[in-house]
């Protein structure tokens, strides 16, 4: 099977999953945006997905984003940065992405604002919310999924909303490994609802990956971030 045929089949299966999950939740599939996470995969895959109608692409490493986005500048794509971000990489990310999903601290807000002003652009920012309270936080590796505590979301949201060059878009989260994703995403939904009550335009909920997109859609996800289901298993050799 050619790579184009493989990606076409994968994309059709993913879209079927989204449609089925939305039907079960009483939602329109048009309310859910699919973001392809292309970490470790080549630009050629991005181009194939674009040819198949995909419009949103995400990277979680600045090193890959700054290479792939310029190489695909001729395509009508929206680039998302979804990984943990060091403040000293803010300028590179702002130059290459329209949305950052992982804003989790004041120093990053400052760095992104400065970079957006320098680039004379507006960057959409999502607050990464920690859902650690709903399950073990990657107990196998001891690594944190990151994010701001739910109680600290209002203060950080106010900083983003007031920062030059930034637009508060909503929230993002990753369900903790070993957690019940329904409980975790229900918690995120409550955080998102409180945020919207104070910032009406902050209505994005970025949640759900290959293993838990149905749960995320049940609890209001507007954006789902899929890698493996679209592109296959990643190899450390890529």
Structure description:
The chain is α/β, with parallel strands linked by helices. It is built from 9 helices and 8 strands. It has helices spanning 3-25, 43-51, 62-71, 90-96, 106-119, 153-162, 181-198, 213-218, 228-231; strands at residues 33-37, 56-59, 78-81, 99-103, 123-128, 166-172, 204-206, 223-226. β1, α2 (43-51) and β2 form a beta-alpha-beta unit. α4 (90-96) crosses α5. The radius of gyration is 17 Å and the shape is globular. It starts with a helix and ends in a 7-residue tail after the last helix.
Any key phrases for this structure?
238 residues, alpha/beta, 8-stranded parallel beta sheet, 9 helices
Separation, N- and C-terminal Cα atoms: 20 Å
Helix content: 40-55%
The string of secondary-structure elements, in order, is: HEHEHEHEHEHEHEHEH
Structural class: alpha/beta
Number of strands: 8
Choose one word for the global shape. Answer: globular
Overall pLDDT: 94
Largest sheet: 8 strands, parallel
Rg (CA only): 17 Å
Q: Numbering strands along the chain, what is their spatial order in the largest sheet?
A: 7-6-5-4-3-2-1-8
The tally of helices reads: 9
Portion in beta strands? 15-25%
| Residue windows where pLDDT falls under 50 for at least 5 positions | 138-143
